[in-house]
Amino acid sequence: MAHRDLPPYGPPEEAPHNGLMTSTSPPEPFIDPRVPGDLARRIVHRRNELGISTEELAQRVGIDPTYLKYFERSADARLSAGTLNLIALALGTSPLALEGGDFERPMAQGRAGRHAALEALSQEHCEVQLAAGGVGRVVYSTDRGPVALPVNFRFAEGSIVLSTDLAKAHHLEQQAVVGFEIDRVDDAMSEGWSVLVSGRARRVDDPDEVVRFSSLDLEPWAGGPRHALVKITPETVTGRVIVHNVILDED
C-alpha cells in the first residue's frame, strides 16, 4: 500500500523560492492520527533503506510481526526501551538516531531518500512555521556583501519582530529590502523545510506598537543593550518542503 508520508496538508501552491536552505518536515501543530509517529516513520525509513521487510525485522528482533506492523502504522503505539534497542541494533543504527535525538550533529550528512520530492509550501503553512517563533536569519547587504545574521524573533500582526541594537536597527531600516529565513532539518529522515520572507524593515517607534510588541518577551541570546525593536513587513513569503513516498508492506 502506498502511503504519502509528508506533508499531511493539502496540495502545495506553486511558489518561487529564491534562497538559502531547501529542506523538510511539516508544520508542527498539525497532528494526523492516521499517520505514524516520528519514531515509526524513522524505523520504516531505515528498514526500507536496508531492504528489510517487516517480517524480517520482527524475526531479527524476536517480536510479533503483527505488532511491528501495527506500530509502524499507528500514532499511539509504543515500544519498550529494550525493544527499541534491539530494533536499532538490527537496523545498524542507534535508538538516539531513530528517535531523532541527533538533530544537533552537523547537518546534511544524511543521504537523499529514494522517493524524495521537493514541493512548495502554501503561504498559510509558511505562516504556521513563522508563528512558532524562535531563531531565524535576517539577510541584508553590507559593504562586504550579503550577511545572514541569526536572531531571536516573533511573528506578530503579520510581521516578523526582532530586537537588536540601535546601529543595526538603523542599518536594516536603510535597506531597500531584507530577507528573513527559517528552517528545520531532520538528517535521520533526510527531510526538512524552509521558509523565506522578503520585505521592508523599519524600526518600531510608534508608542502603541512598542507597548504591544514589548509583550512578546523578545530576549536576544547575545545579551547586551539590544532593545531597538525592528519589524519586517513581508512582501513575498515562500517555502519548500521535502516529501517522501513511503511504501508500507501489505498485511
Describe the 3D structure.
The protein has a domain of 124 residues: Pnp Oxidase, Chain A (Roll). Strands 3-4-5-8-7-6 form a 6-stranded antiparallel β-barrel, surrounded by 4 helices. Helices cover 28% and strands 31% of the residues. Strand 6 and strand 7 form a beta hairpin. With 251 residues, it is α+β, with helices and mostly antiparallel strands. It is elongated and about 65 Å long. Helix 2 crosses helix 3 and helix 2 crosses helix 4.
> What is the number of E strands?
8
CATH superfamily of the domain at 119-242: Electron Transport, Fmn-binding Protein, Chain A
The number of helices is: 8
Major sheet: size, sense and barrel closure? 6 strands, antiparallel, barrel
- Enter the CATH topology name of the domain at 119-242: Pnp Oxidase, Chain A
Spatial separation of the terminal alpha carbons: 9 Å
- Strand line-up across the major sheet: 3-4-5-8-7-6
Mean pLDDT: 77
Strand and helix order? EHHHHHEHEEEHEEHE
Based on CA atoms alone, the radius of gyration comes out at 21 Å
